[in-house]
Amino acid sequence: MSVNVAIYGRGVRRWTMTERGRQALSRNATALSIGPSSLRWTGDALTLDLDEVSAPLPRRVSGRIRLVPEGLASRVVTLDAAGRHQWMPIAPSARVEAEFRHPDLRFTGHGYFDTNGGSEPLSAGFASWTWSRAAIADGSAVLYDTVEASGARRSIAIAYDRTGQDRDFEPPPRVPLPGTLWQVPRETQCERGGTARIRRTLEDTPFYARSEIQTRLLGQDTVAVHESLAAGRVDTTIVRMMLPWRMPRRFI
User: Fold this and answer.
1) Distance (Å, whole) CA 59 – CA 90
2) Residue 252, pLDDT score
3) Average pLDDT rounded to a whole number, residues 72-90
4) Cβ burial, residue 248 (10 Å; 0-12/13-18/19+)
5) Mean pLDDT over all residues of the chain?
6) CA distance 197 to 177
7) Adjacent-strand bridge partners of 209
8) Taking the model in full, what pTM does it have?
9) Dist. CA 27–CA 40, nearest whole Å
10) Cβ(125)–Cβ(85) below 8 Å
11) How confident is the model over 214-224, as pLDDT tens digits?
12) Is residue 140 classed exposed, middle or buried when 0-12, 13-18 and 19+ CB atoms within 10 A define those classes?
């Protein structure tokens, strides 16, 4: 288990994802601690107190993030035909207040909070998937496009209003995007009349890419956070050898 923190900014870039053992875990109905970092619900907000060390360059990442949902969602979405993988956006739209001591950084903005769960590794259930989340005028829109290990393909398109209420909408046509330096395939879905393009690549790894894209959804030109996963690469020998450089292990 780990706490993953990724910071992208002008002159500031940090990544932490330290794996820890069971003895580092503590939780109850409203709080979760993993090593020196913790998450807890306090009133109407989720507060994250972070104290991590980045990798591969060891630099301190510490501070507090406060996420205030505009509304809470209740729908759990099954991602695969066998029902082994689920996803739920707990807060499809939220206000975020971040104050870091290391690095010296403060900002406020628009946020999102979700959860994934499953009874098997992702690489057992999927060959690949793309996911994106965009802010729209009255809430947010989320797209999932999955290819299961069997080859079956599924597209999910859900819009959430500011109270957390959801509605399905017709997935837009698929649009190819340039691959990454590691040749992870990227594509998205964009309505006709709009233009889909990569604004910047945030993470480029042998099996996963995170990007900021321009697209058009529900009649609105918008910017989305986009993820591409080549799940079949996760279990390869070279990836297993590289993972400890970005995901070091600690026993406490």
Assistant:
1) 31
2) 67
3) 95
4) middle
5) 95
6) 7
7) 204, 228
8) 0.92
9) 9
10) yes
11) 999 999 999 99
12) buried
* Locus of tokens 């959801």: 166
Q: Specify the residue for token string 């918008």.
A: 222
pLDDT, position 171: 96
Amino acid, single-letter form, for residue 128: S
Domain boundaries, the chain: 4-250
Handedness of CA 150, 152, 153, 156 (dihedral sign): negative
Q: Please report the sign of the dihedral spanned by the C-alpha atoms of residue 131, residue 134, residue 189, residue 82.
A: positive
Q: Which tokens go with 31?
A: 């709080």
Q: Name which of 112, 122, 113, 139 is nearest 86 in CA terms.
A: 122
C-alpha pair distances (Å), 1 with each of 14, 19, 23, 252:
19, 5, 10, 11
240 phi/psi in degrees, rounded to 5: -60, -35
Residue whose C-alpha is closest to residue 47's, from 141, 113, 115: 113
> What is the distance between the alpha carbons of residues 137 and 140, in angstroms, rounded to a whole number?
8
Alpha helices in the chain (DSSP H): 122-125, 237-246
